[in-house]
Design a protein that fits this description.
The chain is an alpha/beta fold. Helix content is 31%, strand content 18%. The chain folds into 2 domains: 241 residues, Alpha/Beta hydrolase fold, catalytic domain (Rossmann fold); 132 residues, no CATH class.
Amino acid sequence: MTQAFDIQTEWVHLQYEERSTFTETYGFAGNQGAVNLEGIRFRPEGHASDTLMVFMHPASTLQLLPVPRAMAATGAHVLCAGSRYQRNDAALIMEKVLLDLGAYIRHARQVWGYKYVVLVGWSGGGALAVSYQAEAENPSLTHTPAGDPVTVKGAGLIPADAIIYQAAHLSRAHLLAEAIDPSVRDEANPDDRDVELDIYDPRNPNQPPYSQAFMAHYRAAQLARMRRITAWAKARLQELKERNTGEMERPFIVHRTLADPRFLDPSLDPNDRRPRWCYMGNPETVNTGPVGLARFTTLRSWLSQWSLDDSCGNGLENAKRMRAPLLVIENSADDAVPQTHPKMLFEAAASADKTFRVVNGATHYYAGQPELLKVATALIRGWLIERKLLEAA
């Protein structure tokens, strides 16, 4: 049995210089010519380690999740790394998140002296981890999709020693493409909707279980809406550039963005998820609420993180470019990540050493599931110990 350790908690602050043409993040820390990053490091009391497990999400903070603290309690050193956009993804540029993650890994190696760094990509952090690793192994990015220069290729990103892809989707763009509500006909008027594409409208003649023909039509309509928004964003951005004034960016709202039929029809890509429920509650409520995917965004941010055709954070494509050892974990009752995504990434990955495992019955957050949380942490520990990337506590 693995020993349970008491946990020391340490606030981490990193700063590095970066010049920007305009301020993206609110407040003093975001407009002084430097990037300020904050994270939390968990260390088991009295237990040294050569390995640091880095958890990072593009926009969320992860120190309150069950898994990082549970891993630290088993003897692992854990960093919950926040990007410059933590808690607010409205202006998020994915290329810059890669730079933020690179700053943490460099600090872990050069300042803290860890021999091994393992990236743990939970949820939206999965595609981030894979995309970072692909870019660290094979640097290529010199510009954002908006055409703005970005120094990813020349940043000297340090590759991680292994990637753990846990309860993770293919990318923020993939997740949105399968969740966006295709019934919206007018982006400026979300009440103008096609009833036959509104899965929350009882007047819709298409009801669960959905037919294959309806699903094909629905998915095509979702993709069409995504691409209409992308085309509009590119056109507006070009207009702003041609004006050559002080107006350089434009925020906008994307209405109704949580309407994946899987949440209403458990026969679609079946797993153990709860019907008519999602990780943020009632999907119909989330579809129009403030926490919906991509609800508040900007022209540049849409292209960088939400556009399926433009985002650099595409886990499915970037998995083909990375070679690090890879552990993919699917939670069989995941109420956030589409059931198909973990296996798709696993099959696409070019890593010679790759493992796929399922934690049966586990939801996205392991909420109220302490025994399944233990299963997941034991799985991760065992996999790392087998590869001599973690000491047996």
